[in-house]
Amino acid sequence: MSQTVVSPLKPSALYTSCAKTELDFKTTKTLKPLDGVIGQARAVEAIRFAIGMRHEGYNLFAFGPEGTGKSSTVMRFLHTQAETQAVPDDWCYVNNFEDPQKPRALALAAGKACPLRDDMARLVDELKGALPAAFEGEEYAQRKEALETELKTRHENAFVKLQERADASGIALVRTPMGLGLAPVEKGEVLTPQAFEALPAKEQKKRQEALAQLQIQLEGILAQIPKWEKDHRDKVRALNRDVTKRAVGHLIEALEQQWQDTANVLTYLEEVREDVIEHAADFLPSTDGPEMQVGLTAHHRPGSTGNSFRRYQVNVLVDNAGCCAANPGPSGAPVVEDDHPTQPNLVGRVEHLSQMGTLVTDFNLIKAGSLHRANGGYLVVDARRVLMQPNAWETLKRALRAGRVNIESPAESLGWASTVSLEPEPIPLNVKVVMLGEPMLYYLLSMHDPDFKELFKVAADFANSMDRDASSVMDLARLMAAQVNTEGLRHLDRGGVARVIEQAARLSEDAEKLTTHMGSIVDLVREADYWAGVENKKVIAARHVQEAIDAKIYRSDRYRELLQEEIRRGTYVIETKGKKVGQINGLSVLQLDSFSFGRPSRITVNVSIGKGELVDIERQVELGGPLHSKGVMILESFLNARFGQDGPMALSARIVFEQSYGGIEGDSASSTELYALLSAIANIPLKQSIAVTGSVDQTGRVQAIGGVNDKIEGFFDVCTQRGLTGEHGVIIPAANVKHLMLRHDVVDAVKAGLFSIWAVHTIDEGIEILTGLKAGEQGANGHYPLGSVNYEVARTLRQFAAKVRAFGEGRAQPPAPAQINLKVTPGEDH
Predict the structure, then answer these.
(1) 668 is annotated as an active-site residue
(2) Are residue 677 and residue 566 in the same domain, yes or no?
């Protein structure tokens, strides 16, 4: 038995400490706080570019892992840029007096919308006093009385003349239930029919002729009366308009003088003037009789909210100057973050009121959306939230393509039946949209939505790690100083900063990198501050940072402790001493929310003579993933390439992840499976005190895997609870050495010679550690050295092939070259 070629890693390779010489300060109190983001130069440049491009379509999609500072970085740059830009116009909706169903949009200089609203409110109040006063004044009463007298005089003159003619002819003008009539009289008394028949015939004839002529005259007068009354009403209406016009005129003219530089407001005020004149009755007391309201029209529109004065109000949709108490804002362009981007929240909505069981609305119930508020500036939305809201994504794209905000209800946009509502005039849109999301969302939208790349031409890719060098270390320390100052925390001493930096490397899963997940670093500093407070210390030291790390793990690792307990009690079988043929300890990582830990898995292999059928049972029953199936096929390829050149591979192998009942995915256990397979074929036992992780290629080269720290620590914990003997250890790919940032107890055990970690480049290096035998190199004659692992594997395979040939003597066709028959029980990612 020969010595292994690969030596265990030195303790210095297992953990890259942050030397105190790298930190030229005593505490973060002496550092200049860093106000900004670190490790995101590429993303920052993309943000600057997107902000600077004023052309259409150069909206920004910022993507990266959660906690890398996407939102804070974007908002910081947007606010800085927005402060240098002009404040955009205010927007308001006013009544369209010609078509109230289509309210008009008015653009006003920033800060002018609220004054216009207030001016119109004062105008209505003044009109409520001025118009009644004008109609109650002496001048109006005199002029109206003159008109009434004129009408009365016309009536009286006509009937007086008729009465005179009738009197001269012995005819009286009498009033009957049917109206006015004529009747013969004698001595002031109306003649009865009998009395009239008693008159001489000549007198009767004379009276009848007079009656006929007077009747014609009476009918003529009666026919003229409606014309006279219409003429009277026209004159009263003209009088009312004249009085109203004079009462309104000076009030409107004062406003026109005030708004003389705003053409659209002047046009609106002229429309208000005409509407007030037309509906002056709305301003008069309701107790006025009909004689006061002759010629005055009251306003009423079906579906309106009922208050006629609301039509003169100004609905301030967007106030960019912050003059409205409900919408204070800074100078510059607006920066709006919509955390609930539904369709109505994006483009606005028209609200309704219920009156007498009927939904009614008017332009005052139009509400702004985030696109309105961000118009002329920047809108920030979360991509996932937009995509999850019905029709919100399509509505946002439609607004960006059209360059205007069109308020529409979800029902209308989907073509469903809807309550009759308003059709507000669309508002021109000039906005830069920034979407925040995950990388997967960005790439899915790029592939499946042809509009996406036309509307979001700039991508800001936030990295999840940065190089660990002197510059980044000091930047991270200054960032901690900024957090301490901002949140009022205790300052960190040099040791505390060093421990945070080391944890940043651990979180990045790379000793040569630091995580850019600033959310985790910020939380760690806050929690370390808590533990420093528990000890009543004035500064945060390294032990406080470690306490924060340990406490967080303790809060999350109940499931890990349960699993360790099951291993300790023998329920979950893991062997950590002795040697066994075809059995090996593999390693996997379990992820529970943000907490991950390593777990050993017992892998066993049985081999026999076979007829070359390759069966991946996990794949066939849809429990094995494609990556695991790829790993299995690589094992077959490796064996065929190394041992199947001179004869058929008459082998059937069954590989099992024992006591694993979930799905299997990933190829990080393929080297482990190969070691067990070689052991089973060669009948050479493997050390059970050593666990293995790593994938393998077709040539036998061991490749890097993820979660190497968790995997090592998971097996270390199992060995520790059983007692470390110096025989325990883990084999990892050599490519993973730079990722090692192991717990201090693991490093201490290695220093004490109680635990070992080997880094291998090839399967041959690993099999020598596991067996204590040489792997053996193939000689020029094609054979392996006697007693080597490869020699025993080749010898067994030749024996299998010979038995197949012996069994098949006398057959017309020899059996087909056998392949590996793999049977994999349900397992998990390894």
Answers:
(1) yes
(2) no
